[in-house]
């Protein structure tokens, strides 16, 4: 293993590691699988492009490293200092004053911290290309310490990336860094691999939006998103602070929002101080008496902390004149509340599809998943993204979603009329059959909720194929049907695992073909013969003939 | 507002190729467009390829690495270590996580100065005890995070074995042994293994081991051809692929496909499954108490996610107690080549301690440099800002660095692009600059040939006005020296008043007038200028000899260099 493993070398060469470490995996006497030991490899280790560059592009930052490393070697954040001219040192002059107001004047509040926005209309793709180019070049020079010989690259990209931006990214990388091939991996898949599971519900609390992706057997089966993300949190933080500065933002005239504080300062406060209060459902108690004990503890804790609700002094430097705000600690949950939940003030129907509160978004995503997929996904919830670092937010979302499930079950129909119908039917079906939770939960509290399902209540027919499959699968029980959150290594590290384990990327694009054909040359993912596709992924492109049909994977034209 | 020093930036011609509308000849370069910040460079950042006769910017050079070294201890790191040990100094060089100043290793024990005098031959006694890293700039010390070291050297490896708070971090080997013991214990007692929280590296290692064992299991169940299933990046797979071509087996038989289903998911923490503990109430109460000491996100961005640092999902990574000293990033010395002709255009000395270059073809010795001087600024305000709508004159001084006389042609748009277009007039857009000959040679020539261009003597070409002041004249250069020429540029800055802008926009009938507030740096008067330099060069002769063989006219070759540059003249008063 030539890859760096940070500080201490891991025992990757030890026999114990190669063989199964777990007690259950019964591996017979077999030739142990060889990892990618590039330094011990055969003649091809002489190749210059032996080491793969793994680049993850996000809206605000870029991670870069060698495939096989546990963590990226460096991260480059997109920001205004990256957009200055080379040799422009005016910022370092002692009398320099950051005139953020002029930058914010043309609707650019915070946009110079972003690589792209998901709205491609009016987006200067050339500028995106320049930003990527400079960031990758900086990363290669500063963190990777490699020369500019062409190396193969793996790109980890969000699966909802529009084609123009994907095309720009590939054009930039192919044009400026000339890698022979670029493989594409999607962020949710990488996260799932990084968590060690095969199916999961990935909740990416990202910068520009929150994306909920249902993944079943390493395939993205459902994606939905809401604009409630880090950007909104920062804007809400600004709103919160501006209101306390005495000059409430005129929210009605959204076109001419005047900013009182700089983006940097608001972002700073959002990252440092904003937290999320525990779910109200877990403290007030729901009609259902099946509450988890953890939630009860929260209630007592919340009570004890109410006594000490200190005033927090927030020094604000970017306003004229600099001020110091004194805010009670508990009020600092307000931006988070408004940014991610915000369902207290409005009825549920008042939200557009793109601005659903996060817990409703997740509930809907689960609801739209097929039954068996849902049961697997709900017990493998992965929180990721920058906003997952907001203290208490993950638990709040988790509790709210659990509450929604308890309250409504898996029923698409909601509203007062539906509730009445449900009540009636409950009296009808009372005592006949214990209601099965859609996820097949065995927990008693779900049984007590007595939710009426007609399909779920019927006992499933015995399926001979299913039974065979069950026999084939390991004897270990898989956790399903209960809400459970798991941790992932992160998308970069997951992608590093995928690449190191030689799993095929979603799409691998050859430089020559891309430069001839561009994004228009890609076939649909379904049209591509998987055999041919796999072959074209071969090491060093041994079989180039199969490259006649290539695909952009999930990013391609649907 | 800080007074603006006039500046010049040059756009590297390489960025022109990438622009989609390169066929449009009339296109003027807009220095204020967001993209131009990425293609403009100060002259000192540019290199020059002598063979392609082209400017090379940092974007259009191919780089090769000469040396890797630590900027702190100047230790030269062999290139093989970069791959295996990472991009940071693995000795004792650390940066302060707060202020990124260098950290020093200090002994915790106070040095008894009395005993130092009394017993100078026992330094070990005075320097014993635990050691800490301290920042001499901001007084941060590693005791704040509970880290102390036993030895004063090889801090990096010691730090890798410590969590913040001083808890011992198991090395992977120890981790393995610990698990083995626990496994045996659980086999005896029958209890399942306890789940544990893993740090990032251990988690990664556990997952990797798990996946590898799963793949190995699957391999055992198939014919062994299934390694082809994977995308083979490394050689073993490619070898087996070649083998399979000759054996003629179908690459994807059904068995290979069916084995996908046999890979199960990780079930224990030993296999890499980590259940999330979503309860962050302790962190919240910590925030409640220590809110003033949270670290800004910019500080956290500097943190390297390794060396046993807490995984990113522990949530509380916002307190100073979570900070870890940052090992110094290694640096490189790079030689640069022209990407087209592969000639070396910059090559530093391999030794770390020298800053010399063996080869360095900086653009400044090939491209005329432009310096800007104010000539006639009416109504100057105390901060040096230009008055709007009043003509101001600037001197542009072109200095010829090469040993040939050059002809310079300038072109500017008559009105600068942008919302506030200033009127620009270059009084003398075509002129010739004499060669950068030796000073003494010129003096000798002066005596012999009696040229009117005397060495070092300034020749003014303007007419003298009534008040005794020299008046600039159209078509004439202002002043000429040995290898320099200065010309006059007259600008009429536009008024920065937004109401005027809106009014004129309405008057002109334009609808899309952007009457938004003033943007950043929009008050800076910047002139895009297209510079074309022509000269006759000796074919094949090197530039050093060309000055001597100046009067031999044979084998001359016409060369030209053309590029956009941006002149920043000053701020316009608002």
Automatic annotation (TrEMBL), chain A:
Span list, region Disordered: 1-42, 419-480, 518-542
Biased segments, Low complexity type: 20-32
SMART domains: ACTIN (SM00268)
Domain of life, per lineage: Eukaryota
InterPro entries, per the entry: Actin (IPR004000), ATPase_NBD (IPR043129)
Name listed for the protein in its UniProt record: Actin-like ATPase domain-containing protein
From TrEMBL, chain B:
Keyword Coiled coil on entry: yes
Chief location: cytoplasm
Subcellular location: Cytoplasm, Cytoskeleton, Microtubule organizing center, Centrosome; Cytoplasm, Cytoskeleton, Stress fiber; Cytoplasm, Myofibril
Alphabetical UniProt keywords: Acetylation, Coiled coil, Cytoplasm, Cytoskeleton, Isopeptide bond, Phosphoprotein, Ubl conjugation
Gene Ontology CC: one annotated term: dynactin complex
Superkingdom of the organism of origin: Eukaryota
Oligomer status and interactors: Subunit of dynactin, a multiprotein complex part of a tripartite complex with dynein and a adapter, such as BICDL1, BICD2 or HOOK3. The dynactin complex is built around ACTR1A/ACTB filament and consists of an actin-related filament composed of a shoulder domain, a pointed end and a barbed end. Its length is defined by its flexible shoulder domain. The soulder is composed of 2 DCTN1 subunits, 4 DCTN2 and 2 DCTN3. The 4 DCNT2 (via N-terminus) bind the ACTR1A filament and act as molecular rulers to determine the length. The pointed end is important for binding dynein-dynactin cargo adapters.
Family: Belongs to the dynactin subunit 4 family.
Protein name per its UniProtKB record: Dynactin subunit 4
